[in-house]
Amino acid sequence: MALLDLANPSRFLKFANSVVPWLAGVTVLVFGFALQQAMVAPNDYQQGATVKIMYLHVPSAWLGMLCWSLMSVAALGTLVWRHPLADVTAKAAAPIGAAFTLLCLVTGALWGRPEWGTYWVWDARLTSELVLFLLYLAVIALWRTVEDPSRAARAVAVLTLVGAIDLPIIKFSVDWWNTLHQGASVFRIGGSTIYPTILMPLLFMTGAFTLLFVTLLLAAMRNEILRRRVRTLQLMQANAAS
Amino acid sequence: METTAHIDFIAAAYAAAVIVVAALIAWVALDHRAQLRKIAELEMQGITRRSAAAPGRPTEQAAESAREQAKA
Q1: How far apart are CA A53 and CA A204, in angstroms?
Q2: Which of A212, A222, A230 is nearest to A91 (CA)?
Q3: Closest Cα in chain B, distance from residue A111 (Å)
Q4: Per-residue model confidence as pLDDT tens digits over A110-131
Q5: Cβ of A125 under 8 Å from any chain B Cβ?
Q6: Nearest to A99 by CA among A60, A135, A138, A58
Q7: Which residues, 6 or more positions from A118, have their beta carbon under 8 angstroms from its beta carbon?
Q8: Following DSSP, what letter does each residue of A113-140 receive, concatenated?
Q9: Inter-chain contact B1–A13, Cβ cutoff 8 Å?
Q10: Which residue, A65, A87, B40, B47, shows the most beta carbons closer than 10 Å to its own?
Q11: Which residues have a Cβ under 8 Å from the Cβ of B17 and sit 6 or more positions away?
């Protein structure tokens, strides 16, 4: 099946029905391995065992930003190319991105209390991440406010592209401002500053979380296509009755 | 620093992750069943998409799958 064929919702449904169970199985296996690696990884010489929170915090932060990036591409697909799956992708991705961003904030607070002595500070990194979470909630609310899916998609696409300004702010906040949050330590010029015995489990966990995200996204997109079919059938029913 | 020094915070973080992931999985699974059930109900009332009129199309497969689930 060519990639372009998936632009057809019916073909996408067929593809998702066959791929989602396999992806779910692979995700479980990779998660099992990654969690085992995270549990046996050594403690940090300064933070002790609290470094194990990093194995949840970093992947969820990465997915929160990845998801908004994906929604931004989908927004372009909606506004410029009117791709049939673009607004389906954007709508299905929003709750998943919101959930991972919330997890990032919660695990960050639980990591911050023992390391910084506080759950929360209004520094640039934490505040811009909170703004991302609020943007997700705004997108979800907008989808629910406008009844016509195609009108809602255009409004959401504009909001998504405006909200994408927050992504570089999150990424570079630790460089642009003086923050309590540490600077980049995984993806940075000059290589990672994390010791390999701690870095490798982090990369495995990030891979496992990303697989989970892809699985959930495909399943949620399948649901959204079915929801639109329900709407079409209900409109046909209403037209037949009138 | 001892391994157990901040075990409460570590356990709370992993518990939060389990709750969030379980909620996402439940949302996707329950939503899928709900949409299939609605399509099945509408198709049983004779409301069918024109493009799904041919046998073996995804909508009919969805309806069939929902009917099987309902029987189970």
Answers
A1: 14
A2: A222
A3: 7
A4: 999 999 999 999 999 999 999 9
A5: no
A6: A60
A7: A112
A8: HHHHS-S----HHHHHHHHHHHHHHHHH
A9: no
A10: A87
A11: A56, A60, A103, A107
